[in-house]
Amino acid sequence: MSQAVNTHITRGVDWIEADAPADQWTLAGLERLVEAIDSADRGGAAKIALHAPGLFRLGLEWAVDPDFRAGVGTVVAAIERARAPVIALLAEGARDVGLEIAVACSARLAAEGTTLQSNVLRHGLVPAFGTCGRIRDGWGEGAALLLLSGRPFPAADAQHLALVQACYRPGDDEPNGLSLVQEVSGANAARPALDPEATDAWRRRIGRSGRGRLAHQVLLKLLSEASPVSRKAENAAFIQCLNDPQHRALLHVATAEAKAAQVPGVDPALAEPVHRAAVVGSGTMGGGIAMCFADAGIEVTVLDLDEAALERGRQVIERNYAVAVQRGSLSAQERDARLARIRTTTEYRDLAQADVVVEAVFEDLGLKQAVFARLTDVMRPDALLATNTSGLDIDRIGEVTRAPERVIGMHFFSPANVMTLLEVVRGANTSPAAIATAMGLAKRMEKVGVLAGNCPGFIGNRLLRGYIQQANELVLDGALVAQVDAVLRDFGLPMGPFQMMDLTGLDVGWRARKANGREPAPSERVHDRLCEQERFGQKSGAGFYRYGEDRRVPVPDPSVDALIAEVALEAGRTRRDIPDEEVLERCLFPLINEGARVLEEGMALRASDIDVTYVHGYGFPAHRGGPMYHAEQLGLAHIVARLEELAAEGGAFWAPAPLLQQRAAAEGTFSAD
Ligand code: NAI
Questions:
Q1: Dist CA 456 CA 458 (whole Å)
Q2: Largest CA distance in the chain
Q3: Do the beta carbons of residue 409 and residue 423 sit within 8 Å?
Q4: pTM score, whole prediction
Q5: Quick one: 649 exposed, middle or buried, by C-beta within 10 A (0-12, 13-18, 19+)?
Q6: Which of 344, 362, 365 to mutate to test the pocket of ligand 1 (most atoms within 8 A of CB)?
Q7: Residue minimizing CA distance to atom 10 of ligand 1
Q8: pLDDT band at 190 (very low <50, low <70, confident <90, very high)
Q9: For 382-398, how does the pLDDT look when each residue is reduced to its tens digit (9 = 90+)?
Q10: Angstrom distances, CA of residue 321 to CA of 237, 283, 295, 315, 439
Q11: What pLDDT sits at residue 139?
């Protein structure tokens, strides 16, 4: 395809214009661009303005493919050798390789309302084309933030970071941004000096968010070397990351996220518009869910039993926003706008105008049914009725309404305003339009929506059961609490199973067991004895661990290991030293095995949806691709063989799922999709 690159001189500025969109750029187009830059410079241009919207949106394939990478390299070299300052006009913002080309220019002007975004680190790669050197010697924190998050970064905010010199209103300046181009000088020289403290801060940040990630470590190393970052070193680092299995795993996760949005038989166009929302229950989850709506620009009314409960909820919301403002991730003005979208009430009639309601009262079927009976009375007949239940039967909740096809699960994860997973649970009667609306809401909330079937625990919590059970069994068999957690942290999870149990609280199960009077299993006895000592977990300052003043840092407690040994003895268990490999296998294989069952029963649409669920909802390390992808890397046949060995000693719990056996015997992958 011919790709026009036009040039003209307007009021002393040499303009190079190419309007091909990002997906239509070719190597020949890049060559013409190089000629145009060189020729303008040779002709004595005072300033060169690059108005090529698609160029600045070139995707990562332009770095991954060697020929494309070489082509982009020639453009960057032409920009670098030009004596005239080259000014990038980001008419549609910039992303990925396009952003790196923009960063090589002397200055950048962005159209108002556009964003900058880099998926480089998210895909397990490091920047190329000299960008690492530019980060190190210039932008530091700002560029690092952009690279780290992978999220769209408003061009207006990038002005504070000197990544964008000014924003223009398309159409106001003719040609676009002309007067600004005339004003702006070769601004790269005017970048603020690097603040060593800030540099340390973002180095720490890269280190923290990149735990176990090769690309983060490689980038840090490049940036911390004393000499300038050479192109050779940068190139070697890029190739190293490109060839590493982490890049493939992260690519799998990115592809899986996009796939999760597609539900066979559900056209996204069926989604009903959502202007107003309601939330019932203003506790931990209700408050967070209200924030999700407000953050997405949707007006929301929160209902609870009384003013005191509403006030508690409001305070938590205000505190969360205050933290964001303090961190600098939210402006005070934006906070006020979001808070203004949240209203509270004790009256059901105030929910009548809402297009969607999410119920988040206590986890009790009778209570939820009573709430849904009220909702079906007051809400419009076409409103979406969602429950945030973490495990109750959606159909039982739906049966009390007049419109079970409008009833759906929208299972948020705690803290709802932070966690990026939304499990959308389809009941027997849930309509395609209801699913499309809920999936559309996930997207507006910048979450990954995953469709789950209506089974106990849905996808995520259903898989978790075997994982937690094995953690409990491992310590009875002789492993230490801190050992089990350390093994899973080393694998890449943000916390181990016992830290997780301490976080969610041990008392709920204890109270339930006291109420039903059933004889507890040995692992339950451990939990019960901890609770009898008022060790309920983080909230009471102790559980499996002791916690300091801030209730965050877990301190291993030998008395807990002694208590576990005592219970094991009473139960007649033989204890032994447990190797770390066994800890890892016994925790991970139940996830994988149950994942195969979920898949077999059609409770997840595809294996990659289970991966997305675990990466976004449970902190499974993205660079390992999720449990099902990880299983494929280990080899499904190997897992089946190990499960059979474990079943020979440990019984039916370990019996390999039929689908796992089938796939192991066939292609060795889950992904028939
Ligand atoms: P919570 O105890 O913090 O809040 C429940 C709120 O519901 C309280 O403010 C209470 O006053 C209110 N409420 C109770 N009965 C009500 C009624 N009849 N009408 C209006 N409001 C009423 O509970 P949390 O943790 O927020 O959980 C809520 C739901 O979310 C449960 O179904 C739970 O299973 C689910 N969930 C909880 C998660 C968590 O980590 N806490 C994660 C995902 C789901």
A1: 5
A2: 90
A3: yes
A4: 0.92
A5: exposed
A6: 362
A7: 281
A8: very low
A9: 999 999 999 899 999 99
A10: 39, 16, 10, 10, 25
A11: 65
